[in-house]
């Protein structure tokens, strides 16, 4: 009987694990492999990692794609630019998202679910279309310029599209819910008695916020920031539609190498470098989320 | 169920037998080589603090955990490797674990349905058991539409509907308020008697254990410290843990000064007194022992006595605190050595008399039969 | 307390405006007669002209049909797989390989899409070389790729729902004689059904929306709706995209509003029941 149970469990965990191994883990090994091979004009356009001589495999590991990436300042710049964009966007999202999450968590019960729905609603609608909407607003003869011209604040339209400004607007706009939701989940659980206790002990509102609310919300801040930072580093759509043309981000770089230059080893090398950059944040995020789950589990038990 | 030819003196085999059962979670030894025998028709209470291993022991019996070592027999059959859904045992969960998406009726019927009985039979059994727990008017309700006490009854009915020979109850009354708890205790006893089921009850509440149990086991850090009837455990605890855990007790450390047949004389240096006890204990002169005296067995006399008049089981002191509890009052008496002794007084004289006691010089005395002498 | 409240409330209102102004402007301009998005042709607006253009565009319709099929398949398969994974993670304790499964189910959520897309394409190419399957890129490869990342979301949703439920419910069912498979069908699945449905909807939306991964694994013949939109948008603003956006937003918005109202209604009813039960106890 124990056997039957164990077999059942193995099946339940095994099927999804097998799927993910084939469609998630193995692909990365392939990317890793190709990043070490040499480009060649063939289909597929890379040389095999081993060649066969006298029945034995001879490794043909090439570091050429990495050498290329590290010696070409274009890549290094794009790499650093991506990190900067991701970091700045995370800060903007936090600056806008924290007060919003705080206001929702403090709102009256009846309002809370409605406000939350308003935050989540855009998330369920097409990401691409929402980014596209900003083109209509930001372009030279777009809504914003038109309004500013009409009310006389401007005499000539300013270039808003394809600047860092439009890039950040697009990113903050798209990723704001990712910041607000974990923050709200955290802030909503705070015991209001703590605030009353702090006030009772003579702390002023701002002190209470700094010394009680803020430290308690650090896990929410961490989760939200990581949920924004990690995907933004490799963001492709927003920089392509709204970003600068003279400075591209690393995700776009990867795509261009792959589709335009058909250089699979270099594209794979870029992917590996992005992953290396993201390993630490991803591990951190998993730790934050695991703690969250454990805490919820404990609360459910209690 | 086959009636065995009972040759008169042969003892009844235990219904549940645990043989050196241990359970490890990682490095933590939750249950440590517990051996235990429980007879048919008993209400056996496992009493212990949190982390004492009592719930793990219950889960081992139910089959949710498999023992790391040892064997579990129920009705003579080795259950160690039998999964929960094939054991002749049912459990009532502390959280009640009522299925929230099913009505009372479906909840209670769930177990009976697994036996492959006909629809009518299932229905009859559900009606019958709901009648017993007085929940018949609520068959159509869902768990969230019931009060705490009603949920408790449904949980009990669900566990009993399968007519188990052995029912495991995990803190069955913990979620009820005090009034309801007392009433339910007696109902549980009533139902147990009516159905003749063997109960194993886990509880952290000693009052509950005392009321319910025919026998009880006190657990401490994964081990069974003592097994016995409630009276045995209260009157003759085997060690300091049990003495202290059940009720309150004054523990006086001392050395055996003299031993004469059943009579022991113990010199309690830190308390500055000598305790005489008429108890059979395995000890020799010079051994360190502890005299355990229940607060209600100490007599408090308010008049001052001359030194000479003090016998062996007498000591003088001053009342420090009096806590009025209604039915009794608890006095903390500082004896001459500076140690504090706890005494309970039945409340015959009323509040005013108790108040006067504060700071009064008093004499404490007790019978030689009252102290229990503990070597561990 | 007041001042922080005022500040955060102001930010909330401005933030919500920030979230909704672009969507509203898209909706308004979808009824504009002018080809220039920026000029409101007051004489001939509002008009449904662009909706007509949209529905006579064969490319858009084909792409929408492909996206719909892919999204339904991907959502269904990923819901099954994600439910299994979520159950394993929430209920099987510390089994061997748990950490790996956790890693593999959470990483796709944050993985930059370009990397997922590239790695899956390389996998399909390698598979085709090695075993001749899948034959070329198309609907099948898109669906397979979508399943993998959608499944991660379903897993999280199901797992957190299960974490909120007392495991003793399943133990009680076993104790009452139900075998593990039966426990799953009669107890676990009904309890997590709302999460499973939510997971399916989420997976459907993600698949329906995905651009980057599809671009990598789509191959030349097949274009999903986001791919068609993207190529239109890269050429500049076009009013029929506004019409499309309006349609999609209204479908989603009405769905979410209905769901929220229904859930609130249920919540209220439960609370009232609980109050009645408590009152009956007195």
Shape of chain B: elongated
Helicity range of the residues of chain B?
Answer: 10-25%
Q: State the strand order across the main sheet of chain B.
A: 6-7-8-3-9-10
SS field, number of helical segments of chain B: 9
CATH class of the largest domain in chain B: Alpha Beta
Helix share of residues of chain C?
A: over 70%
Tally of contiguous helical segments of chain C: 11
The CATH homologous superfamily name of the largest domain in chain B equals P-loop containing nucleotide triphosphate hydrolases
The end-to-end distance of chain B, rounded to whole angstroms, is 44 Å
Apparent shape of chain C? globular
User: Distance between the terminal alpha carbons of chain C, to the nearest Å?
Assistant: 39 Å
As a whole number of angstroms, the C-alpha radius of gyration of chain C is 24 Å
Q: Gyration radius of chain B, to the nearest Å?
A: 25 Å
Question: How are the elements arranged and paired?
Answer:
The complex is a heterotrimer of chains A (302), B (376) and C (282).
Chain A: H1 2-35, E1 50-53, E2 56-59, H2 64-71, H3 73-106, H4 109-124, H5 127-138, H6 143-150, H7 164-188, H8 192-200, H9 205-216, H10 218-233, H11 237-242, H12 250-259, H13 264-301
Antiparallel strand pairs in A: 1-2
Chain B: E1 16-25, E2 28-38, E3 43-48, H1 54-62, E4 69-74, E5 77-78, E6 89-92, H2 104-113, H3 119-132, H4 148-160, E7 166-170, H5 178-195, E8 198-203, H6 206-212, E9 215-220, E10 223-228, H7 230-235, H8 240-245, E11 250-260, E12 263-268, E13 273-278, E14 288-293, E15 299-301, E16 314-324, E17 328-335, E18 340-346, H9 351-356, E19 361-365, E20 372-374
Parallel strand pairs in B: 3-8, 3-9, 6-7, 7-8
Antiparallel strand pairs in B: 1-2, 1-4, 4-5, 9-10, 11-12, 11-14, 12-13, 14-20, 15-19, 16-17, 16-19, 17-18
Chain C: H1 2-29, H2 49-55, H3 58-91, H4 98-110, H5 113-131, H6 139-163, H7 168-175, H8 180-209, H9 212-217, H10 225-234, H11 239-281
Helix pairs in contact in C: 1-11, 2-11, 3-6, 3-8, 3-10, 4-6, 6-8, 7-8
């Amino acid at each position: 009987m124990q056997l039957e149970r164990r077999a059942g469990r193995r099946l339940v965990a095994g099927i999804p694990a097998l799927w993910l191994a084939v469609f998630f883990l193995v692909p990365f090994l392939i990317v890793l492999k190709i990043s070490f091979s040499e480009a060649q004009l063939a289909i597929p356009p890379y040389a095999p990692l081993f060649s066969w001589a006298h029945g034995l495999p001879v490794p043909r590991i090439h570091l050429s794609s990495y050498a290329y990436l590290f010696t070409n300042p274009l890549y290094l710049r794009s790499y650093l630019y991506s990190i900067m964009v991701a970091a700045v966007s995370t800060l903007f999202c936090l600056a806008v998202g924290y007060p919003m999450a705080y206001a929702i968590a403090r709102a009256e019960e009846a309002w809370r679910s409605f406000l939350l729905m308003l935050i989540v609603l855009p998330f369920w609608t097409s990401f691409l279309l929402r980014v596209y909407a900003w083109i209509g607003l930001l372009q030279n003869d777009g809504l914003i310029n038109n309004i500013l011209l009409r009310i006389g604040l401007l005499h000539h339209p300013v270039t808003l599209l394809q600047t860092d400004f439009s890039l950040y607007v697009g990113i903050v706009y798209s990723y704001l819910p990712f910041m607000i939701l974990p923050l709200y989940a955290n802030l909503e659980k705070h015991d209001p008695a703590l605030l009353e206790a702090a006030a009772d002990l003579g702390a002023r509102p701002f002190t209470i916020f700094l010394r009680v609310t803020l430290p308690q919300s650090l896990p929410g801040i961490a989760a939200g920031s990581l949920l924004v930072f990690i995907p933004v580093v490799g963001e492709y759509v927003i920089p392509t539609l709204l970003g600068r043309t003279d400075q591209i981000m690393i995700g776009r770089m990867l795509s261009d190498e792959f589709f335009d230059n058909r250089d699979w080893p270099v594209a794979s090398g870029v992917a590996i470098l992005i992953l290396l950059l993201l390993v630490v944040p991803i591990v951190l995020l998993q730790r934050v989320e695991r703690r969250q789950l454990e805490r919820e589990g404990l609360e459910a038990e209690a | 169920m086959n009636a065995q030819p009972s040759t008169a003196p042969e003892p009844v085999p235990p219904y549940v037998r645990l043989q050196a059962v241990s359970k490890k979670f990682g490095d933590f030894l939750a249950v440590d080589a517990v051996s235990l025998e429980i007879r048919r028709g008993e209400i056996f209470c496992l009493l212990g603090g949190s982390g004492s291993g009592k719930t793990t022991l219950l889960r081992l019996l139910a089959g949710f955990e498999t023992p790391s070592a040892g064997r579990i027999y129920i009705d003579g059959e080795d259950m160690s490797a039998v999964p929960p859904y094939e054991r002749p045992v049912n459990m009532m969960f502390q959280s009640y674990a009522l299925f929230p998406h099913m009505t009372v009726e479906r909840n209670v019927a769930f177990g009976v349905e697994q036996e492959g009985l006909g629809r009518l039979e299932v229905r009859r059994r559900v009606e019958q058991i709901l009648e017993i727990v007085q929940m018949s008017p609520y068959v159509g309700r869902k768990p969230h539409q019931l009060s705490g006490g009603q949920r408790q009854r449904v949980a009990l009915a669900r566990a009993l509907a399968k007519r188990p020979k052995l029912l495991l109850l995990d803190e069955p009354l913990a979620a009820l308020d005090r009034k309801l708890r007392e009433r339910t205790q007696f109902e549980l006893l009533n139902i147990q008697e009516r159905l003749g089921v063997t109960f194993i009850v886990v509880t952290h509440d000693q009052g509950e254990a005392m009321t319910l149990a025919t026998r009880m086991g006190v657990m401490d850090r994964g081990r069974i410290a003592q097994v016995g009837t409630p009276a045995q455990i209260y009157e003759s605890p085997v060690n300091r843990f049990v003495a202290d855990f059940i009720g309150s007790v004054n523990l006086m450390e001392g050395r055996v000064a003299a031993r004469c047949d059943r009579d022991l004389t113990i010199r309690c240096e830190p308390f500055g007194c000598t305790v005489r006890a008429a108890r059979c204990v395995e000890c020799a002169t010079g051994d360190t022992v502890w005299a355990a005296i229940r607060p209600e067995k100490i007599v408090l006399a308010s008049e001052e006595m001359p030194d000479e008049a003090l016998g062996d089981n007498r000591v003088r002191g001053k009342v420090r605190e009096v806590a009025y509890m209604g039915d009794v009052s608890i006095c903390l008496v500082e004896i001459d050595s500076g140690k504090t002794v706890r005494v309970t007084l039945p409340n015959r004289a009323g509040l005013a008399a108790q108040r006067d006691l504060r700071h009064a010089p008093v004499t404490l005395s007790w019978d030689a039969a009252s102290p229990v002498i503990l070597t561990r | 307390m007041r001042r922080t409240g005022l500040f955060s409330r102001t930010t909330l209102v401005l933030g919500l405006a920030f979230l909704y102004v672009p969507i509203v402007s898209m909706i308004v301009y979808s009824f504009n007669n002018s080809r220039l998005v920026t000029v409101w042709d007051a004489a001939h607006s509002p008009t449904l002209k662009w909706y007509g253009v949209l529905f006579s565009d064969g490319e858009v319709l084909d792409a929408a049909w492909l996206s719909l099929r892919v999204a339904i398949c991907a959502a269904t398969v990923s819901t099954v797989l994600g439910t299994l994974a979520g159950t394993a993670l929430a209920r099987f304790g510390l089994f061997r390989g748990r950490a790996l499964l956790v890693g593999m189910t959470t990483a796709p959520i944050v993985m930059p899409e370009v990397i997922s897309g590239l790695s899956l394409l390389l996998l399909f190419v390698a598979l085709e070389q090695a075993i001749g399957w899948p034959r070329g890129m198309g609907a099948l490869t898109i669906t397979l790729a979508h399943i993998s990342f959608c499944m991660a979301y379903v897993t999280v949703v199901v797992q957190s729902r299960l974490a909120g439920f007392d495991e003793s419910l399943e133990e009680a069912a076993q104790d009452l004689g139900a075998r593990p498979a039966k426990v799953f069908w009669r107890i676990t699945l009904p309890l997590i059904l709302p999460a499973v449905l939510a997971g399916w909807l989420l997976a459907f939306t993600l698949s329906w929306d995905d651009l980057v991964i599809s671009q990598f694994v789509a191959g030349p013949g097949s274009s999903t709706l986001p791919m068609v939109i993207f190529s239109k948008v890269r050429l500049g603003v076009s009013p029929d995209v506004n019409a499309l956006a309006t349609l999609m937003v209204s479908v989603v918005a009405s769905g979410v509003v209905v769901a929220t109202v229904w859930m609130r209604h249920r919540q209220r009813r439960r609370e009232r029941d609980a109050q009645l039960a408590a009152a009956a106890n007195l």
